[in-house]
Amino acid sequence: MINRILIRIKVVQLLYSHLLIERRFSLESQPTPPTKEKRFAYNLYLDLLYLLVRIADKAAGRSGSPLSENPFIKNLRNEEKIRSLAIKYQQEPFPFESVVDQLAEKVKESNIAKNLKRKDSSDFSAERVVWRDIYTTIIAPDSTLAALIARLPNYSMRAEERAKEMIETTFTSYLSSQGHSDDALKSLRQSLDKARELYFRLLMLIVDLTKLRESQLHDNMKKYLPTEADKYPDMRFCDNAVAARLQELPEFTEYAEKHSISWLAEDRPAMERLLKVVMASDIYKEYMEFPATDLSTDCNLWRDLLRHVIFPNVDFLELLEDQSVFWNDDLEIIGTFVIKTIKRIEEGGKENPILAMYKDEEDARFGKELFMAVISNREQYRSLIDEFVNKSHWDTERLAFMDVVITMTAIAEILEFPKIPTSVSVNEYIELAKSYSTPKSGAFVHGLLGAITGKLRQDGLLTKE
Questions:
Q1: pTM of the full predicted structure?
Q2: How far apart are the C-alpha atoms of 15 and 130, rounded to whole Å?
Q3: Interhelix angle for 327-347 vs 295-305, to 10°?
Q4: Helical residues (DSSP H) of 324-360, grouped into ranges
Q5: What residue ranges of the chain are covered by domains with CATH 1.10.940.10?
Q6: Cα–Cα distance between 337 and 70 in angstroms, integer?
Q7: Predicted local distance difference test score (pLDDT) of residue 206
Q8: Percentage of the chain with pLDDT > 90?
Q9: CATH 1.10.940.10 matches 361-458
Q10: Residue 400 has what pLDDT?
């Protein structure tokens, strides 16, 4: 029910606010004054961080693993100081190379790594702390590594302790910055859960408007001087098959009960006003004048009422906005799924009319993985934008921030999701730019993504169609 179009919108919106206020992760700076001890300590600090990257790569092997793709390791790889060390140690021996294999094997066989594989994909907290735990329990206590450190030129115990303190500070900095990401991911889940709630609420409108009309007709029967129409009302609208079928579906009734969904209980006057608009519509009047109705005409009634009467109604839109800040943006997409549910009711058969929250497990993970791909690689993606933006027309420092976020998210999807065709990703983010940024943003994002994907193909980094 929640498709990737909606997930992309949610991720872009969340990234926009998150990146504006994020607490940035960074490595420690060179201590001052740069005494011999402090220089040794700082170099040891960087070498130990580079050792973590080497161990992660070795533990991953050819198949890759959650350890090597962990956000902390990705952040380290993107740090200029770590990239410089990688180049340096291509030219000269890495002082800890002799322990990389044995430590990688220890890490692979550790309970920490095994437990990480068993963790639910949405458990971001386990990912955040895994390398801190590996360093603390496996790497730092290793006697072979300790012996190598002690044999380094200019070694001193105080310098080693200073390096370890900087490592601990780096983990603290990372966990602080990623804690903010954790909050953002929680907001993403809440936003998607609210979209699911909107789906059920829109279905509940059918039930509650039906119940409200039935209540009105019964009240009319009790008038002191009822008319013939009051005594023998036309119950066609109240008896419509769509409302009846929804109330027979356990998944619908259980969700409504669990989440206390009832428009009538929450705001009966608003429902009375909406019902009045519905009954004044030509769609309702034509339906009530049909010689006879069946399941097909009942389904057509609700499809037409929702599309042409209820969804465009200003009072109803304000009601949605009061309920949740997310819902007006969600209405167009979620509304199509409500219409699809009515179609399923009309078709009958054994298929459950209520749509699952996600099509499959890949869709369920898509939002979190897309968000984290941008967070982990944002410097790389931003450098691509700065490289290929047409500087004769655009100042890279004054680009609309929403355009930057949309483009970075598009790059993440293109690079990190091999099953999604490149053209699909490009087109989706062009449409997002048109809807959520400036009037010129669609053309800007289109041109920029064209240049970037061309470069990625040329460099062999993008091979899918």
A1: 0.71
A2: 24
A3: 170
A4: 327-347
A5: 361-458
A6: 35
A7: 98
A8: 67
A9: yes
A10: 86
